Every structure is written in C-alpha cells, then in structure tokens.
Amino acid sequence: MSRNYLHRIKGLFEFPSPSGRLILALLTAVLLLFAGLTGGGCGRQQTQKAVCIAGSTSVEPFAEKLAEVYMHRHPHIRIDVQGGGSSAGIFAAEQGAADLGASSRELIGKEKKLQEIPIAYDGIAIIVNKQNPLTNLSLNQVRQIFQGEITEWSQLKLPPHPIDIITREEGSGTRNAFEEMVMGEQAEITPMALVQDSNGSVREIVADDPYSIGYISMGLVDNRVKALSVDGIAPTRENVKNRSYKLVRRFLLVSRGLQPGSCQDFVNFILSAQGQSLLESEGLVGVGD
Amino acid sequence: MKKELYIERVLLFLALSSIGSLVTITVFIFWEGIPLIAYTGLKNFLLSSHWAPTRGHFGILAMIISSVLVTIGALVLGVPLGLACAITLAEFAPERVKTLLKPTLELLAGIPSVVYGFLGVIWLVPLIRDYLGGPGLSLLAGSVILGIMILPTVISISIDALSAVPDLYRDGSIALGATNWQTVHRVVLPAAGSGIVTAIILGMGRAIGETMAIIMVAGNALKIPTSILDPVRTLTANIALELGYASGRHREALFATGIVLFIIIMILNLAASAITRRR
C-alpha cells in the first residue's frame, strides 16, 4: 500500500500528456508574471517623481492623508509614506535614505544639525466621565494615578470608589507620548490598567464608566467626556499653541536641506492654509497663527 | 484512463498544498518567535508576568493564566447549557421543533465575533459594572460572551453524537423498564460520551482562540486576575492588540506568544483524540 502511494507521489511530477506540460508551462508563466508585477519597488516608475517620507508612526496617518490629497492634485508626483518610528525616520533623513524624516519627538544632540519643519501640534488630553466633578489634576497626580499609587478616588477628595485606569496598548504613539511627557524615564503604567487599542475605544469606555480616567489625542475629545486641566491649564487650542499646556508634542519633518522641487512643493502644501486645515480637521493643532 | 490519472494527481497536489500551507505557517511562527525565547530564556518568558516589551520585559504568565481562566469560565457556562440543549433537542423534542431549532442554533455560529463583542460592551459590561462592581470589562464578561459563542459548536456536535447512538439501545433500555430520563442518563449519554467530549474540546478550542470579542469585553489589563471582576488579557488579545505597532523584539515576542498558544491548542487536540481513542 504505502509503496504504491510513494510511487504515486513520485509520479505527480511527471505530467502524463503534452497538454499537461502545456498547462504547467502556462502556470509557471503566470507565476513569473505575478512576481514581476509585485516585485517592483520605489525605483521602477521612472516617469513619476517620488518623495519618500519615513518615520514616526504617530505622524504616519496624517502624512498619508496629506500625501493622498497632494497626489490627487499632482498626479505626476508620487509620495511614499513609511513608518518605522521617529528615530528611524530622523536617521533615514540624515543618511538621505528618505527625503523627509517624520518625528513626533524633539531633535536631540547632533540631530539638531538637520533642518526641522514643525507641521503641527498634537495635544494629549486627560479625560474623565462627565459625572466626575473633578476639573483639574497636577501632572504629578496624573503620574501617580497611572503608576498605580493613587488607586481610589477618595485620595483625590472624591466619594470613595476604585479608579478604573484606561491606557493604550504598548507601542501606540499616543501611549509613547504619554509615557514620555507624564511617566518619565522610571515610572511604568500599572498592570492594573485596562488596555484599549484606539483613541475611540478609550473615549467610549470613559464616556460609559463614571469611575474611569484615560488619555486620548486632544482633537478627539468630544462632549461625551470631560478633558481635565493639567496643573491648572486647560487643554485648549490656544494653550497648545502658546505651549502653556504641558502635554503637547510637535510633529516635525526633518531633512538634510530642502532642495527646490517636488519635496519642497509638498512641504509648502503642508504648511499652506489648505494643508493646515486638513491637519486641523484630523484633530491636530496647526502651526500657523 | 489517462484523464483520470491526471485529475487524481491534481487533487493530490491540491491536498498537499493545503498541508503545505499549514506546515509553512507553523514553521513561520516558530521561526519568528524562537529567537525571543532564546533571548529572554524560557523561564523568564513563561513564568514572569512583567510584560513591558518596549522596556525589555517579556513575561506572559498573566496572559497564560487569563486565557486558561476565561476558557474555563466559558466552559462552565457553555457546556451545561449546550448539553442540556442538545439532549432536549435530540431525545425529547418533537421532530418539528427539532427541525426548526437546530438550524436556528447553528445560525448563532454565523454571527461575527465582533457583534458578540459589541453586544457585550453595550449591554453586559454596564450590567456587571453597575450590579457587581469593578470596571465591568472583566474575566466574567469575557467568560459569559465566550460561553455563548461556544454554544453552537457544543450543541451541534453533541446532537450528532446523540443521534448516532442506535435506537436499539434506547428500545432495550425502555423494554427493561427504565424511564426516558434513565435511558438518556444511563445509556445514551455514556454511549455518546466520546462525541460529547469532542464537542467540549472543540468548544474549548473555539474559546481559547477567540480574539475580537475578548479584546472588546475583557479589558486587556496585564495583571494576574484575583477576582472574576478583574480585567484580563488573553494570549490572543495580546497578539492582536499590539501587532500593529510592534517591531524588533516586541514583534518576536508576539510571535512567541503565538507559539505558546499553538502548543496549548496542540495539547488540547492531542488530549481530545487520546480520550476519544480510549473509549
């Protein structure tokens, strides 16, 4: 039995008829064609001018949106947007591997030699349920809550009930920014915290659960949740712009030096009234006045 | 004759390619995940519950425990309900009721898991929060939703197992003076035993592998739960939550989580077939 079976497997690779061979040849041709079509990379389309942007995953969705609108108006220019993280993006711009690096953190050390173009501000709002009478927390209190040192609302002079802490998943840009600006180097977000994978679902839970606290991108705060002041300063557009609200990061594009051409043109588009209003409609705060 | 041989070979090739994709997936998961386990050491990976991959901590103990607890919870809820339902439909219900209810129950399996999750969030979670306490998103919420989700699996396989018991057994038992319930309880259930165990194990597989609904209702917190009202993160939820942004070691750690899940499910299936064979 098993010998027979083995023999059959061996026989599989000898097609019985010329038509079988023809089909095999056709299949191979189709496969090769597919490989040829999908294997093409950045360099293939010589007729289009390409601008490569790489870097921060927080900037990526906004850059993609901008690129989409820009490419719609300039069909002959192609803009490739890649993630990889701020450091990788800055490095790529330094090396010239990308025309523009996207960063959601400030430049440090010798990175400062690069030309930086701030494109928007992103504020992070600390949100609580509408029923919560709290209006203000100090930065330190926010850290203690998320660190798990303050676990009861009574510790903040509210009626006693455990605090439900909502955070984002490890690796999320918003969480990164929150960790950098609130938690600092040492403190870790408590493992007790509930984890949600989008700004939207954090907001959903906070809107629903009267004892919860979370943080989301400022542009996504709506009237179902309450954004707290931090150290007495409310998270408003004005306070973000004049940088008195502390939980703000800048979104930067960096480059070795912009040359006139499609790259410069795209940057001009981002900084134009239209580009900025696009970013504002996506929830960021523009850099213009 | 030649044509037949040709078709046979094409079919064999297709069969091998489906096995091939299975092998490829397995090799790929292990290939991507093993380096991380080698890097942290098996003990630090499996027996630590400190998960902070961007800071270099890769312990998944809490998630293993949570996955197991959620699955047990789902079985505690789903198996008695499902079995009772299967026995009623297979043994006691009139034929007309059975032909109406069985397809309806199987329809439950066709509801996408995100819908179960959504119902859980909208409806079950606030109930738990208001009446039992805690954040609502919890081990309990996950278990209830999974318990409902495994019902169609448990019910339809159990019904098939019960229907496969020859009527001779029933007739013999009744002829000896046993009541209907005694017949079901002493004769039919033991005879259908291996099929029912298979139903439970398949339900278990469904529960442990479920991802979307559990992300939505279980809260995904990283600590080892101490109460059924605590939020938990399962192995599947961990992978799905973090894969989007993960890179480097973090990504490897998620694949390593996949390895653990893979091994758990393999053990489950092997146990199932061992039990079935022994009977």
TrEMBL record, chain A:
It comes from Desulfobacca acetoxidans. Gene3D superfamilies: Periplasmic binding protein-like II. This is Phosphate-binding protein. Belongs to the PstS family. Signal peptide: none annotated. Keywords: Phosphate transport, Signal, Transport. Involved in the system for phosphate transport across the cytoplasmic membrane. GO terms for molecular function: phosphate ion binding. InterPro entries: PBP_domain, Phos-bd, Phosphate_ABC_transporter. Residues 45-273 form the PBP domain. CDD domains: PBP2_phosphate_like_1 (cd13653). One of its GO terms (biological process) is phosphate ion transport.
UniProtKB/TrEMBL annotation, chain B:
GO terms for molecular function: phosphate transmembrane transporter activity. The keyword Transmembrane applies. SUPFAM superfamilies: MetI-like. Residues 64-272 form the ABC transmembrane type-1 domain. The chain crosses the membrane at residues 12-38, 58-86, 107-128, 140-166, 187-208, 253-275. Pfam families: BPD_transp_1 (PF00528). Signal peptide: none annotated. InterPro entries: MetI-like, MetI-like_sf, Phosphate_PstC, Phosphate_Transport_Permease. Keywords: Cell membrane, Membrane, Phosphate transport, Transmembrane, Transmembrane helix, Transport. It is a multi-pass membrane protein. CDD domains: TM_PBP2. PROSITE patterns: ABC_TM1. NCBIfam families: phosphate_pstC. Belongs to the binding-protein-dependent transport system permease family. CysTW subfamily. Part of the binding-protein-dependent transport system for phosphate; probably responsible for the translocation of the substrate across the membrane. This is Phosphate transport system permease protein. It comes from Desulfobacca acetoxidans. The gene is pstC.
